[in-house]
Amino acid sequence: MKKLDDLLGRLGSHIREREEREAAAEGRPAAMVTPIKDRMIQSSVLIMGQSADEFLFQHTLFCQTVLPYRDPGPTVRTWERAQGDTRLLLEAGKIYDQKADEYKPIGLPFGPAARLILCHLNTEALRRGVPSIEVEGSMTAFVHRLQGFEPNGREIRRFKDQVSRLSVALIRMALIRDNGAFQVNATIIDKFDLWKDKSGDGQGTFPSIIELSPRYFESLQEHAVPLDERAIAAIAHNPMALDVYCWLAQRLHRVDPRRGQFLAWTNLHEQFGQGYKQIRFFRRDFLNVLNMVKTQYPAAKFGTDQGGMMLFNSPPPVLRRAVLVGAPAPAPAIAPPIPNAKRLPFKPNP
Prior knowledge:
Elements: H1 2-25, H2 35-49, E1 55-59, H3 60-64, E2 78-83, E3 86-91, E4 94-97, E5 102-105, H4 111-128, E6 132-134, H5 135-147, H6 153-168, E7 170-177, E8 180-187, E9 189-196, E10 205-212, H7 214-223, E11 224-228, H8 229-234, H9 239-251, E12 261-264, H10 265-272, H11 279-296, E13 301-304, E14 308-312
Antiparallel strand pairs: 1-11, 2-3, 3-7, 4-5, 6-10, 7-8, 9-10, 12-14, 13-14
């Protein structure tokens, strides 16, 4: 083990030295290694050197359609997204405030915290084989694992707020077919116990024990996408990176090995470009996010050019041989239809 740790440490130093050389060759100062970047380097080295032994799970629906990156504000009560033949409508709900003895409107779930909570709820339910989850204690331990240190009160309140938003949100999903469309109306969480929030500036109540809806839990057991917890922890600060990682994790191993799949920048902008009015600014930031995700999913094969992005068949970040405790291994999710892909002149990124 010591030899492996020494090797991983040398690889991390090599990556930092290479970045410094590249910066010097380009005549620019080397970027400061922030705690986030250092965490990403360490995670990347570990992922290249060791297979995953801690997994998270995301529902394939949320690997294809995304939540808001930022808080859309209290007046925005609905959120619509489209991806291929899938249409998602998310509606904000109301939560009972015991202190005021009334139902109060609460906003839409958003940002990294909402995505991480979904992963946590999915994982806890699948590992235990039951849809009921004790939130507060397990969530604190989860945030601790992601950050590497004990979360403070502000961070816990942020996660509690997102749990509350997810608990009362309504999901409407439509699947477009040749002869019509199929719509499902559901909630992620069926019921929950509300406890008083004792923190000074917390809201009156928050869900402490929640139960996933039967329909969602049944669907999750069939359509869960396994993710490497180390990678999720490394990019936990960036909601677009989380979405792109999950998307590639559920998509790349289903791509036709002989043809690949081409996506134009307009398609990518429609899926991931919320808040970007001009595609050129989205493309700039999306390419940076792709580089970030590639460090945490080194087996991912794709290429980009001025026209768009080409996906190539790649192994998933977590192989399907991983066994869930308390539930059968999830079956592969149904892949969306693949349009005829163009053959592009570039080769996949190594």
